[in-house]
Each structure stands twice: as C-alpha cells, then as structure tokens.
Design brief:
This protein is mainly alpha-helical. The protein has a domain of 71 residues. Helices cover 85% and strands 0% of the residues. The chain contains 5 helices and no strands. Helix 2 runs antiparallel to helix 3. The longest helix has 39 residues. It is extended and about 60 Å long.
C-alpha cells in the first residue's frame, strides 16, 4: 500500500509538469506568431523584434530540452536573461542615464560569467550519470 501512494504522487506531479510545459510551449508559439504578424503588418523588422523572437526560441528550446532529457539546465534561463537585458538596453537606451546602461551591461556580463562557470563546472566536474553518458558516447565515437 505504501508503494502505491508515492508512485501515484510522482505520476500526478509529472502529469501536472507536462501540462505546464505544454501550456508554456503553446503560449510561446502564440506569442511568437503574434510578433511575426505585427512585423508583417508594420512591414518592418527591428533588432528588438528579432531579440524578442530569440527569447521565444530560447523558451521553446528550454521546453524541448526538458522533454528530451528530463532535466532543465540552469544555463537556459541565464541565456534568456542575457537576451532580455540586451533587448531592454536596446529599446530604452535613449532614455537611460550612463549608470543604468553600465549596470545593465554589468548584469549581462555577470550572467555571461555565470554561464562560463556553469559550463566549466559541467565539463570539469560532471555528475556521475552525466559522466557515464559521456563515456558511452565517447566509446561509440571511437567505433
């Protein structure tokens, strides 16, 4: 009896998780489609529009990666944060003072350093299951 309840809870949480991911994916596709339609209507594409589409693409990539591996890497939200800050900087640059611009670029730099540290840590100190996966891929490449 004890084994059935935790198993049910795990399945219920996975179901809710997948519904949430599906909602995020559908909402992202709708938002991206709306942005494309507004660019077509304006007959103009700006850098801010492209960066917004890139944000949508990163969200979809994050959902796809989660479906593919069952894991959500921390790097994806960091990438999204960097692009969002860059978009904010580009859109509002004319109305910003120097200190705000410097603080935003500093935040982007800190996020980039965080990505670098995460990549270094992932390559240098992988988790045991990641290490096994890499060894299998490496041995398959050698065949």
């Amino acid at each position: 009896m004890e084994g059935k309840i935790p198993r049910f809870n795990k399945r219920a949480l996975m179901f809710v998780e997948h519904i949430g991911l599906l909602v995020i994916a559908i909402a992202t596709v709708i938002a991206a489609g709306g942005e494309v339609l507004s660019m077509i209507a304006a007959v103009k594409v700006s850098l801010a529009d492209l960066l917004l589409l890139f944000l949508y693409l990163e969200v979809l990539a994050m959902v796809g990666h989660y479906y593919g591996s069952g894991k959500l890497p921390v790097r994806y939200p960091l990438y999204i944060g960097m692009v969002a800050l860059a978009r904010y900087l580009i859109l509002d640059m004319k109305g910003m003072d120097e200190w705000r611009m410097l603080s935003i670029t500093g935040a982007i730099f800190i996020l980039a350093l965080a990505v670098l540290l995460l990549r270094f840590g992932d390559c240098r100190f992988p988790y045991a299951e990641d290490r096994t996966d890499r060894e299998v891929r490496k041995s398959n490449d050698n065949l």
